[in-house]
Each structure stands twice: as C-alpha cells, then as structure tokens.
Amino acid sequence: ELRARFRAVRHTVLVLSGKGGVGKSTFSALLAHGLAADETKQVALLDIDICGPSIPKMMGLEGEQVHQSGSGWSPVYVEENLGVMSVGFLLSSPDDAVIWRGPKKNGLIKQFLRDVDWGEVDYLIVDTPPGTSDEHLSIVQYLSATHIDGAVIVTTPQEVSLQDVRKEINFCRKVKLPIIGVVENMSGFVCPKCKNESQIFPPTTGGAEKMCQNMNVSLLGKVPLDPEIGKSCDRGQSFLAEAPESPATLSYRNIIQRIQEYCEQHHLQEEKIM
C-alpha cells in the first residue's frame, strides 16, 4: 500500500536534528515555501512531530480540519501547490497535549503515510521531532519500501547542539539514510541599527563547518538570526516572501537550490541503476 501511495512522490526529504529548539520546523516550513515558489512544482509537508506539532501555526493553518474522501485523508492546502498534514489538525485545541506511547505514535505515522492522498508530488518534506527514537525509526522503516532522497540535519553553532547532531549523523549512517547535508541555523546576528555582528550562540568548537569536515558531510549553508523569521512564523506567513532581501532569505535560497540539485542528481543515479 505504501509503495502504491508513494509511486506518485518524486522526492522525499527528511528534516532531522538531535536537538530540540534549533529551528527544524521553521526550516521545514521555509523549505516547503521556497520549493512551492516554483508554481510548476507540487510540494507536500508532513509533520510527524506528534507531541509538538508546530507546522499548522507556522503555515497559517491553525484551526483547520482534515477531510476524508474515498481516496483517503485530504491534506490541508496553503497554496494550490502546497499541501500540509499534521497531528495538529486532529486536535480539538492547539493547546491539547498528545500523551501517547510509542506504538500509538508509530500507528499514526503509518496512517499518515498510507492514507493521505497527496496526489502527484514533486517534493515531500517530512518534519521530524528531535532525537533518534521511535518516530525516526518508524519513518525510515516505512519509507524503506519506497525511496528517500536523504536527510537535511539542522543545528545551531554551539557545542551543546553539535554534540546531539553528531548522534543524528551516526543514526543516519546506521539506518543507511543518505545525508544531503547540514544547515547551521542562528549563525550570527547582525544588529539592524548598528550593523555589528554578534555570535548569540558562539561556535566554541568551530561550529557546524568544523563538525562537517570531521564527519565528512556537506555543509549546505549558514542561516543568520533574524527576528523577523520568528514573527513571520507566528503570523503563519512565509518569511521568504515577506523579507526577500534579508541575508537570511538569500542564505535559505542558496540552501534550497543545493537541496534541489542533490535530489535531481539522486533521481538520475536511481534511474541509471534501474
């Protein structure tokens, strides 16, 4: 059933991080917005952060409900070419706590993969919770029947975050999940008034760049801190559209382009093998 459902999905990208609070959901939301800016591309965003679903808020879809049709659950659409699915749509209030054990979480992830009718999709972005446990094992196991292009791993520059991200890289290697690359989020802050740059999260051990060299993974880019990103997410707007000239937007666009190039290359290699 999964294989049949995913036959129409061209590229699947997982967004991971060992650490909570590094901006993984923000990155997933902006990656989806950035890809969907090309109206010829159909983009889907799946939120499997069961206990902390923040994607509905960030995409401006809070309070929306999931509808069921003969072909399965229908995603909630932000634009005609950008559909979203999250456990947040199944809660009666955004403040409801999801207090579930592993098997129930795994069951919902399987249901999302099997029952959501995305239609033809160019990019499926999967926003995951922090860590390397149940939800991550489930999504990799279920999608192994189809194909995953790879994972984007999000970190912040300080060692406390990098320590957990190294675990995430090792997790990917153990479960044979390709790593597209690492994004260093909240990488420096330029004061809008005095233009001085401050390191809010100092890269005491060399930041993501040094870690990527040591662990032989690609650094996709560094996104500077911009207070407007948080404000846009709270309003459910696309920061990329609201602040097209921001250094953070330019950095996002470069990262998104690199992810697209990787996916296209991966697709060509798979076709050659087949």
From TrEMBL:
InterPro entries: AAA+_ATPase (IPR003593), Mrp-like_CS (IPR000808), Mrp/NBP35_ATP-bd (IPR019591), P-loop_NTPase (IPR027417), YlxH/NBP35 (IPR033756)
Record-annotated AAA+ ATPase domain positions: 10-181
Keyword annotations from UniProtKB, A to Z: 4Fe-4S, ATP-binding, Cytoplasm, Iron, Iron-sulfur, Metal-binding, Nucleotide-binding
UniProt feature coiled coil, ranges: none
GO molecular function, one term: ATP-dependent FeS chaperone activity
UniProt cross-references to SUPFAM superfamilies, sorted A to Z: P-loop containing nucleoside triphosphate hydrolases
Domain of life (superkingdom): Eukaryota
Residue spans crossing the bilayer: none
Principal place of residence: cytoplasm
A GO cellular-component term linked to this record: cytosol
Biological-process GO terms, alphabetical: iron-sulfur cluster assembly
Subcellular localization, as worded in the UniProt entry: Cytoplasm; Nucleus
Role: Component of the cytosolic iron-sulfur (Fe/S) protein assembly (CIA) machinery. Required for maturation of extramitochondrial Fe-S proteins. The NUBP1-NUBP2 heterotetramer forms a Fe-S scaffold complex, mediating the de novo assembly of an Fe-S cluster and its transfer to target apoproteins. Implicated in the regulation of centrosome duplication. Negatively regulates cilium formation and structure.
Name this protein carries in UniProt: NUBP1 factor
Organism: Sterrhoptilus dennistouni
UniProt lineage: Eukaryota, Metazoa, Chordata, Craniata, Vertebrata
